[in-house]
């Protein structure tokens, strides 16, 4: 039997608890309604995802932010139908994750846990905003994490001064 949160192999058991989650900021602009026009046109929807994480003052607690910027335009004309911005935060208690694996854990596993709640908010707000509910496809947080690492690596040499 394992003691002190360790597995039988002696490795620490990873523990992750969602302590809280909330909307930090949200904005939905029904541009089509503001212009006083209606549209039955085919929409073209773009979704941008940004992630951030930071340590809280309490031991083993982290705050993970998922920011979505969703813009829907008419495919044929490019006219904006709506713009939706959402900052969603989860507060996590995480223990047993090795220090070298904590960063990817925070930016992959934590947003993955919150995603069903984000999806529901996006669906409800777009529906309540006068559009068909937007049901987001699953987001590949691993790919987002890898793309961000690659982007930072290509920027790092460019930002260093040459001699």
UniProtKB/TrEMBL annotation:
* UniProt keyword Transit peptide present: no
Q: Mind telling me which NCBIfam families this protein's record contains?
A: PRK05751.1-3 (NF004392), secB (TIGR00809)
Spell out the InterPro entries in the cross-references. SecB, SecB-like_sf
Q: Which organism is it from?
A: Parasedimentitalea maritima
Per the entry, what this protein does is: One of the proteins required for the normal export of preproteins out of the cell cytoplasm. It is a molecular chaperone that binds to a subset of precursor proteins, maintaining them in a translocation-competent state. It also specifically binds to its receptor SecA.
Query: What gene makes this protein?
Result: secB
- The protein, known as: Protein-export protein SecB
Instruction: Classify the source by domain of life.
Output: Bacteria
Question: Which keywords describe this protein according to UniProt?
Answer: Chaperone, Cytoplasm, Protein transport, Translocation, Transport
């Amino acid at each position: 039997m394992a003691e002190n949160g360790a597995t039988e192999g002696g490795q620490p058991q990873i523990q992750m608890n969602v302590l809280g989650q909330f909307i930090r900021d949200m904005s939905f602009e029904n541009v089509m309604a503001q212009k006083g026009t209606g549209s039955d046109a085919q929409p073209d929807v773009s979704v941008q995802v940004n992630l951030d994480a930071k340590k809280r003052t309490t031991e083993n607690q982290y705050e993970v932010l998922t920011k979505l910027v969703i813009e829907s335009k008419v495919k044929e004309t490019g006219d904006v139908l709506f713009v939706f911005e959402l900052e969603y935060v989860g507060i996590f208690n995480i223990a047993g994750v090795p220090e070298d694996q904590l960063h990817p854990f925070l930016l992959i596993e934590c947003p993955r846990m919150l995603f069903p709640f984000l999806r529901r908010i996006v669906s409800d707000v777009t529906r309540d905003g006068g559009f068909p509910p937007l049901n987001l496809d699953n987001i590949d947080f691993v790919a987002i994490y890898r793309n961000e690492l690659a982007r930072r690596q290509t920027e790092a040499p460019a930002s260093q001064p040459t001699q």
